[in-house]
Amino acid sequence: MKKSLIITLAMVACLGGFLPGASAQQSLRQQIATIAGNISGKVGVYARVLETKDTVSFNRDERFPMQSVYKFPVAIAILQQVDAHKMRLDQPVKILKSDLTTSGHSPIREKYPEGNVTLTIKELLEYNICESDGSACDIFFKLLGGPAKVNGYIHGLGVKQINIATTEEAQVQKEQPMVQYKNWCTPIAMTQLLEKFYSTPVLSDSSRNYLLHLMTTSGPGAKRLKGLLPAGTVVAHKTGTAWTINGQTAAHNDVGIITLPNGNHIAITVFVSDAGATEQERDATIAKVAKAVWDAYAH
What we know:
The protein has 299 residues and is an alpha+beta fold. Helix content is 44%, strand content 20%. It has helices spanning 3-37, 71-83, 107-111, 121-130, 134-144, 147-156, 168-171, 187-199, 205-216, 279-297; strands at 42-49, 55-58, 64-65, 92-96, 115-120, 162-163, 184-185, 235-241, 244-245, 248-259, 265-275. The strands form three sheets. Strands 1, 2, 8, 9, 10 and 11 form a six-stranded antiparallel sheet that branches. Strands 3-7-6 form a three-stranded antiparallel sheet. A hairpin with a 5-residue loop joins strand 10 and strand 11. The radius of gyration is 21 Å and the shape is globular. The two termini are 37 Å apart.
């Protein structure tokens, strides 16, 4: 066989392997665009199969308000301090009434309205991730030196398109709805952080596995990323939700790592912002995106 024919056949084989993949990716992106087009608001998506590096995106470089999604990087920062032996999971933290958020979701505030209680770092992590407690998050900011310190730490990991600028107390005030937009991230950056957390030694194995456990057992957002996936699918995730003011919701988000039946993992970010839609419609948008990605990569 002539050399030129061998080269031609090799090129055909390569193209034959590439084009269906490219076509499937384009089809998936079109599905996501259609889902996004059916809701009043802006949708951002970035999904990456960690083992194969396959990706799909939609508005991946746009800035979206994170709301409580930023409790995920805050938890990473706390656990890094634990790994560095600067904090301990069993370390007691005295909580005063002034440490509690005055608005927004806070089971700690509801249980201890006057403060005057001591909780461990471990207990605060559970409140922060599993119950998305705003007071727990702000107590962590206090321990870490403020939002700017956490922001600098995350930037130091190589994730630049994120801005952790204000506390929970500041961003959940209905009277100042624009403050929450200061805490923003792009879909590609959040998925990058998910991948770094999962696939690189950002944390010790024990800290990584502990945070994965908290994210997997987290209560909020059962109808978002997990909403349309098969029963029993393992999803380690963190939600973020803004107030709905005058029919508009600034942030309705879910980000996480989905375990596929073939053993691979999808790091996925779905942000929905400035949505004039019901909670059910916002949840369904995230669930449909996750299901489309699942269907594309599950086999």
